[in-house]
Amino acid sequence: MVIIGMKNVSSLLSTRFNKHKILKTYQEHLSLFLNHLAQTKYGEKPKELYEPIEYMMQLGGKRLRPILCLMGYELFDSKTENALPAALAIEVFHNFTLVHDDIMDNAPLRRGKVTVYQKWNMPVAILVGDLMMIKAVDFIRESPSKQINEMLTVFLATAREVCEGQQLDMNFETQAQVCLDDYIEMITLKTAVLIGASLKIGALAADASIADANHLYEFGKNIGIAFQIQDDLLDCFGNDSNTGKQVGGDIAANKKTLLYIELLSSVHKDDRTLIETLSSEQNMEIKIQETLKLYKKYQIKAFAEHQKQQYLDKAMLHLNSLTVKPEMLEVLRETALGLMERIA
Amino acid sequence: MVIIGMKNVSSLLSTRFNKHKILKTYQEHLSLFLNHLAQTKYGEKPKELYEPIEYMMQLGGKRLRPILCLMGYELFDSKTENALPAALAIEVFHNFTLVHDDIMDNAPLRRGKVTVYQKWNMPVAILVGDLMMIKAVDFIRESPSKQINEMLTVFLATAREVCEGQQLDMNFETQAQVCLDDYIEMITLKTAVLIGASLKIGALAADASIADANHLYEFGKNIGIAFQIQDDLLDCFGNDSNTGKQVGGDIAANKKTLLYIELLSSVHKDDRTLIETLSSEQNMEIKIQETLKLYKKYQIKAFAEHQKQQYLDKAMLHLNSLTVKPEMLEVLRETALGLMERIA
């Protein structure tokens, strides 16, 4: 499968979209959303709470989730503006999780800018996140849709799952052994369900059938899992210019990625000691190179790629079950794959 | 006005209630709620998130807010069980704010037990609070009521205000001067609106008119303000056995209470230096006694009592505007006053 680089997404998509005149281009969706975002008032007083919200919401990013929400809507109705409150709700929710995650991770930077937690302080960041979560529910309820209750149900269930996923991720840090199923469950909850929910909530806002909305959810969720696996792959086998991250960062940090988990469950007895030694190796060059050799020896890359492909295949099955024009499906497929190249 | 001590509340109320056979007694409401609470499942996995929620929800307390919610319902409908999901939502929400406040305040204890933040850790406490907030919205939506949307609107607006109030309170700590209006706004948002909302959401669950629901809200809100002022009074003029707190704790901590704010705005020029000296006085005995002398000199106690009475009067005006049986109003009035003696 060819993954479209982010730099090419907008030019490629605008060509395709303009040719078909079916869905708005990525750029059109993005500017529609950014325009709405710029006009959004979260509140005024106390400014100590609302300024950090403005700051966080203007930090940028691909706006992956809100755009998927708008696309989910547009498959079933052309008045895309109607999906803006829901798209905003999803982006505000996503940013709420980032504000709180940054406290938990003691992170100094987010998208190259100082985190809310560092720019203000911890109590402010906790409250700002709380308020963003509340505002997100408010925004969902502003949607001009007959299916607000269904949208709220999906939104709240997803919000719960994202919290659960974050906790599972934290558990992994101290857990000696993590099995593949647990890992897939974690990335599903922490990231993939919100991708699925973005599309589903958009579809529901456009009064899509529950069946279509569910197929979109499964499409998004499985794409989300596939791209998390790809993230793990890129960290080991990508190159700096592609990912903006140094190769082997996960290995250096002893992160329990899909690759590492599979390695642990595949190795022969005689390589176990080597793995244990490597986990406390201080020379990062050696640590990364030796671990990569083990990945090669046990064909971990092929395993991960196979796993990823399975989730992509599942996603496509659901995509093809949608009762919308085939040309639309093609556009959605390509945009989603392009946008998801790295989950921002 | 005679305030009923907590130890007397249940016996007194059960007599009154049984005589009138109008509303359930405090004890009946409490056991109805506690029974529902004991049966509530918040979720299962990961247990690192759901165990702290169980722990927090079982810490106890007077359950003031959920009981007011049940009473708000019962004024308009006798099937009180229907208000249990909303009552639970409000108690879960209140406890979410406590979990996060305890992190912000670095508090070791809550109701005499170790705080979630201390018993587990900060990341867990942040996530636990987030999840409780989400669950609270879920519980509101479980209400068997025609007015769920109105209930949600009140709930979300109140949630936002409580966050704003907490921020205002934090602002006061570093603010050189706080005026009376700002103080009243802070206690209104931080505490009083949730008291009002508890009653209003209960009434809405019973399909009460918007007018009645709003009168109940104003009744609760004004009672809430009055009792926060009373809290400030008790801290200076109460005695240990009444409040369980040492007299003068607020003075010792340089807390900007209504009394202190009024003192600052009343003092003659020649007492200003004394106040400034006292604020950095290390001997707490002297600090408290000298500040109390100033309170006496400037009749601060009378001022605060007058303020409190004004809010109580406002509350009663709204109570008397309710279109329910006068006997019910009497019971509600006494229970609310009894329960609110100290806002737990």
Strand content of chain A: under 5%
Count every beta strand of chain A, where a strand is a DSSP E run of 2 or more residues: 2
In helices, the fraction of residues of chain A equals over 70%
CATH superfamily of chain A: Farnesyl Diphosphate Synthase
* CATH fold-level label of chain A: Farnesyl Diphosphate Synthase
Overall tally of structural domains of chain A:
1
Main sheet strand line-up of chain A: 1-2
Q: Please identify the top-level CATH class of chain A.
A: Mainly Alpha
In short:
Chain A contains 17 helices and two strands. With 344 residues, chain A is mostly helical. Chain A has a single domain, classed as Farnesyl Diphosphate Synthase, CATH 1.10.600.
What does this structure look like?
Two copies of one chain form a homodimer. In chain A, helix 1 (6-20) runs antiparallel to helix 17 (326-339) and helix 8 (148-174) runs antiparallel to helix 9 (180-205). In chain A, 74% of the residues lie in helices and 1% in strands. The first copy, chain A, contains 17 helices and two strands. Chain A is globular and about 65 Å long. Chain A has a single domain, classed as Farnesyl Diphosphate Synthase (Orthogonal Bundle). Chain A has a two-stranded antiparallel sheet. In chain A, strand 1 and strand 2 form a beta hairpin. Mean pLDDT of chain A is 90; it is low at 1-20. With 344 residues, chain A is mainly alpha-helical. The first copy, chain A, has helices at residues 6-20, 26-39, 47-57, 64-74, 84-105, 116-119, 122-141, 148-174, 180-205, 210-237, 240-243, 249-252, 258-266, 269-279, 284-297, 300-320, 326-339, and strands at residues 109-110, 113-114. The interface between A and B is medium-sized, with 35 and 35 residues.
